[in-house]
Amino acid sequence: xxxxxxxxxxxxxxxxxxxxxxxxxxxxxxxxxxxxxxxxxxxxxxxxxxxxxxxxxxxxxxxxxxxxxxxxxxxxxxxxxxxxxxxxxxxxxxxxxxxxxxxxxxxxxxxxxxxxxxxxxxxxxxxxxxxxxxxxxxxxxxxxxxxxxxxxxxxxxxxxxxxxxxxxxxxxxxxxxxxxxxxxxxxxxxxxxxxxxxxxxxxxxxxxxxxxxxxxxxxxxxxxxxxxxxxxxxxxxxxxxxxxxxxxxxxxxxxxxxxxxxxxxxxxxxxxxxxxxxxxxxxxxxxxxxxxxxxxxxxxxxxxxxxxxxxxxxxxxxxxxxxxxxxxxxxxxxxxxxxxxxxxxxxxxxxxxxxxxxxxxxxxxxxxxxxxxxxxxxxxxxxxxxxxxxxxxx
Length: 394
Ligand code: NIG
Ligand code: FE
Fold this sequence. Notes:
This protein is of the alpha/beta class. The protein is built from 14 helices and 16 strands.
């Protein structure tokens, strides 16, 4: 396949602190094969695209979402706003289990239609790679249905994560029995059908505790899955320790962390994924982003889009909260939504920055970097290219 030459753009530097005018890039088979100022004379290209001095930077990687689900939890939000807690709602069979009922009941076709609209909304905001977790069906048949739907979604690259260990469904009377079912029946099937690359678990009081989680993570790792963990969201727990112990791609939420856990992140390749819009909706503290970054840990940002703790898909609000409430600088927010988010998904060798050989996924805009993560609900006008092809946003 022949190459595409992009010319005349301002390339934003890897640290998002400066830009290089009159840059050109050659893309072959979707990958960046050359970047520079002097176009090689011998170069054979099938197409040349002049980007007219626009700014170009890596497109966004949204590394933590629960975008495939049915039903709404708007009434629960009203209850929470009137003082009923997330855990109280969960104990009465609401919360994750209420989404489970709706997700089990819906047909695969209807679920696909609902989910595709949500995916399109991410793409409109410059997202070229999107992580989606299962975990709203909690039985073999319907978890498979969720993941198969995820496979059919169009637009961005999708990274699929199996989150069967999200909550215990009513058919099981103990966590031990449910996790045993996941280990013996469900994980091997997910593996065989190649439905997910990674496994996630919600480690928290009243959800999954340390020892049972450790056994589950070991079984998942033994089957060849990389892991990621919903960790330390509602309390100081061992989730952050297990993430480092199991060489997890990421530990997500991580609001309640002790100094030792922060130090452990800085020495590991596990990325701390921070989800501030969920913290806004849950009315809880924001994670210690400054402490993590200053200690040398890698920090990524994501929406955590889901019907319960974060019914918002707004990337600009995520970045805005990181800037306003977590003292992250604008360049740190861009890195957290590009290269660090790619690392949080274990795909940083393939995308997330402009190294040669990586996917040509980029945003091209007349706006300035300071126009991004500035106005909640608004992404500056831009073009999105995924693997060198402009994406028509529906
Ligand atoms: O990331 N913490 C666990 N899971 C989701 C919430 C899921 C739900 O409430 O439906 C989260 O916040
Ligand atoms: Fe989540």
